[in-house]
Amino acid sequence: MGEKVRGRRLGKRLSPGARAAWAKSSYADDGYLPLWRHMSDSAATAGLLWDRWLPEQVKRLVAQALPGGFADARALAVWLAGVHDVGKATPAFACQVEPLAEKMRRAGLAMPTMRQFGEDRRMAPHGLAGQEILQDWLVRAHGWNPRRAAQFAVVVGGHHGVPPDAAQVMDVRAHPRLLRTPGESEALWTAVQTELLEACADDFGVRERLADWRSVRLPQTVQVVLSALVIMADWIASNRDLFPYGVDGTDGTSARTDEERALAAWEGLGLPGPWQAQEPTGTPEELFASRFALPDGARPHPVQRAAIDLARRMPGPGLMMIEAPMGRGKTEAALAVAEIFAARSGAGGCFFALPTMATGNAMFPRVLDWLERLPDAQGQRLTVGLVHSKAALNEEYQELRSRGRQQIAAVDMDGDAGIPRPGSEKREAPAGLVAHQWLSGRKKAMLSSFVVGTIDQLLFAGLKSRHLALRHLSVAGKVVVIDEAHAFDAYMNEYLDRVLSWLGAYRVPVVVLSATLPAERRRALAEAYAGREQRAVGFASVAEAEDYPLLTAVSPGHGPVQDAPGDSGGGARVRVERMADDEAALADRLEELDDDGCVLVIRNTVPRVLETARVLRERFGDDAVTVAHARFVDLDRAAKDKALVDRYGPKSTSRPKRHIVVASQVAEQSLDVDFDLLVTDLAPVDLILQRMGRLHRHARTGRPARLRAPRTLVTGVEWGAAGVPEPVSGSQAVYGRHALLRSLAVLTPHLDAPESRPVRIPEDISPLVQTAYGDEEVGPAGWAPALAEARRAHETERAKKKRGASVFRIGEVKSPGSPLIGWLAAGVGDADDTRAGRAQVRDSGESLEVLVVQEHEGGRLTTLPWLGKGRGGLDLPRDAVPTERAARAAAASALRLPARLSKPWVIDQVIKELEQFYVDAWQAKESHWLAGELILPVQADCQTRLAGLVLRYSQDDGLEVLRETEG
User: Fold this and answer.
1) How far apart are CA 44 and CA 271, in angstroms?
2) Cβ(185)–Cβ(110) below 8 Å
3) What's phi and psi for 626, nearest 5 deg?
4) How far apart are CA 309 and CA 898, in angstroms?
5) For residue 536, pLDDT beyond 90
């Protein structure tokens, strides 16, 4: 089999005192697991994780840090997992279960009761205790330098998610009685701890390696991934279904060897191994034809061919940034590059990070289709995950989860019946893709081999939060693709740059995609990935490149390389005109279309969307205007998006002759739609260009004669006859005056004067973006004072954002040999993938989400009546857990409240009023869809009142917030 599961002799060779120490107990049946047994189980599990699950990319990272290479790396992982709970052989831990503590006392290990210890006992959590015991043993028994010992021992100290900080270490050292009871039994406590460590050193094969490891400077990246591997091994080995134990401290199967016990558990877990990518050969045309469903006669774009060529030419996998116009197949290029990078680096999967849940949901089926077309080398089963806060409501993902659902329990290695083994027809999902049950939940979902998720999931790797090591392990073994990199603000970029610096240190291949990336951001991303030692070499040229499309590559240990592949796609010439910020003027302009043409109007705020829609409906009728923005319940939002793509997408068969869509920024990125005319509020120029990407997007015949040339009308500005135009206040609140004025300045030469020229796409994309985000003076001379004032305010705000981001952001990678002690000090606890955590990495402020239901006379609650697929009008009883169907429909009716209801001065009042609708019966564990959620009941007219405001909801317009006098 090529692997050895150790631990056969550990329990038999121990003294009565060492055998009396316990690790796990059950209040349900008084069962318990001896410490030696859990140490053996954990070590065996770590060995199986190493052999059967861990990607080669991570193994190599650890191996390169050790003198014995891969053999040392595996032995170290197994050994650390084996000793991780040695801190349970202390009075501070053992006193917690009195019958088991008394058994240890009878073996000579005296200890106070838990009450006698009092609060002091909390200063020695068993992870920290184990770190101290292991470090002391390495120093005392093997002559290690204390700092060298700490870089290994901290893996034990952090196995519950947070490495100890210096103050905690000092506290436990100041209270030695927590580790060993003073007096006659102190020597026996020391002997038992030493005996367990000596036995592990022998049994897990590291005794002869300790002398060589004594001089190792362990990189922090290696400390992190080893910590994560130990956490995984501990969690699996702590699962009583996989590793059973009885009331007498045995597993009830005394005839089973330790090897058989571990293998039975692994078979029961059924965790598929990593992707084993094979480097694709052949031409780019052959590769694309085999991986993607291309139209007949389609050939790769020049940027796609260049990306494949550059990935093959790079000295080693690293960072590649692909800047190219919309519609040039950057996604397919990224997946092709990811396959090449994975084959060369040993990556075991891929993480595709997108700016929003909507873009993530849209990307998920595309990634699944790509996976289905990958060569199936050895019948591999590949784990997949969709990771964002609403993933459980995605029907395609839920179908994969239901196919991959299994009972997790140990398998009888000698029996014929029981759970199907991995790869059998009974268990395998089509094409070997499975959403594995164990790889679910907030802490583990990112550990699947292939993950599509929001950018938050990557930014969380820079947030000081519990179990951060698991999140780092989840990306350390993958290729990471970051889409729409231009969509992140200064605050998010602070987190992204720090995460990229760690990804570079892990040697994780990264592909960054953008249509409109400012040159300084390009340089910042490249320098962050390269790291401090490399970034001084040749990186100024990264920002100086003016070519477009543009590829930029950085390989570890090498300077940046850039390639300009040119563009063969059909270009567009977009006429840009200014228009007064007046709804009636807009209606007059659209009336000139003579009942012909599909128009997209993009407003920067939801109130402007709704007001524009109201005026246009009065002029053209309700059926002529559709609204799209983010303030719809999830099911309505999904239905809206689908209807828009069905009408205006590339495969539309029901495109109306005339229609107006009034949308917020949701139309910028996530929807593949095509319109004849674009009207847009002024926005930063890169977003204006993104919005232009929805204009004449698809090759179509039969466009209205007046709209055969693409045209964009820019509004949302008080133009004035003279002086500096002033963007409307709502737009300034969203984007800032500085970005808007510079956008307007670079667009001015294209605005409707006789000598103006159209915006050429793609030729003008890079010049417009680089000039708008550069430092050179722009705009008419008379604008200079206003632009200077706006810049000062912008720089002040940006500095504030940087300071804010630094509060909970992890530090840079320190030099090899620096222990992880204090790595997550002053962090956010478990708040990574939560409402508070998402607010932390997005600087969005904490927001409130509610489940919208309908309240009828007498107080009866139901789901909203119009929900499709039989989900509308389902009963939600107040005195019982609703049915699964009704509860899920209610959960899919989530709505994020506007920011004005989440401000510090009002949020407490809002929550207090919402808690009036708290339903006790829904807080049971059987009600996982509804437990802990805030409920917002609306009346038959779909209105309610909250914090002195009227909230009105409709299927057509979503949520509207009015003052009492307006409602």
Assistant:
1) 15
2) yes
3) -120, 145
4) 47
5) no
